[in-house]
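Morning, I've got a small favour to ask if you have a moment. You're getting the sequence in one-letter code plus the fold written as tokens. Thanks so much in advance, here it is:

===
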Amino acid sequence: MEEPSALTPELSRSLLAWWEVHGRKDPAFKPWMFTPEGKWSEPYEHLNPYPIHVAEVMLQQTQLQVVLPYWQRWMESFPTLESLAEAEAQMVLLSWQGLGYYSRARRLHGSAQTLLERIGCQSCEDPLSWPQEPGFWLDLPGIGLSTAGGILSSAFNSPLAILDGNVRRVLARFRAHSRPPTRDLRLFWNWSEALVEAAPGRARDLNQALMDLGATVCIPRSPNCACCPWQMHCSAYAACDVERYPVKDTPRAVPFQVIGVGVVLNDSGEVLIDQRLNEGLLGGLWEFPGGKQEPGEAIVQTITRELQEELAIDVAVGEELISLDHAYSHKKLRFVVHLCQWRKGEPQPLASQQVRWVRPESLVDFPFPAANARIIAALLDHLS
């Protein structure tokens, strides 16, 4: 088989030709990639970087079909860079609720404030007033090489490559690469950069085409190789072993924990919630209080102990409200949730930012982690 370096111009050409016919060039899929007139932008045209920035951050570790409705609601709530920069942190988290990886929302909010200081309120609608240096974007929290390349190539057609999960999968299969891509990222970057260099003036289209190939044809399971413009040069296809790639690292054991949760009601029918510290995976979100079950401990004891340690209150633990499992990338949790009646003690935020008594119907006004949405639904159903 020909070396990829010799094939690169042909690969870029055939990929772009395939994309012109089969790419996701539809405002319904990627509205941030279109001009205000609803047209796919020409190479010389610039797009507003703000909606692209939002989309690229949302697309980190999240698929397009999941992101799209969140992006649309976000742009309704924060239609401009200025509106996001000046928004309250709780409103930002509430708009992000359900999308997961909440640190992305906090970083996007902070980045908007930094960008507004750099650009100014009067100029943020003009794409040319936005920074086009990759180094500036890489200094923003949560922006890596691929996200910066995606923003700048999409907004300005800058000749920068990307290397998201779709692209890594396509390249790993094309070369039948024998190691996990994460172990050879520089090599994969070289390949992606070479494809962009072989398509002068079309970095925006090339990157979108490469992502679309991975998202619609070279998919993780049952790839549609018959429709792939690279089929005749693909090493994995030639070996009849496409799904073997990309090679994965040996998965690490994921710890399992049981969490006792107390839905505490007072005599006025209000429910107690607390706000997590800003640091960590779910920083700044609200939740029902509780904590990890210790070895040999009954769940009622767990809830009683945790509420005393974290809130300095005594409760009577009642019936189980709901039990549910929830998986994160690094651990699996089982939440065992009990209704509790407050007995004594003024709630204190000993392990949180603040605590608050709220009416049950007002819970929807606070940003909660995804697992808590089912707890809220169970509570409202119980009270009704």
Observations:
- Residues 256-383 form a domain with the Nucleoside Triphosphate Pyrophosphohydrolase fold (CATH 3.90.79.10).
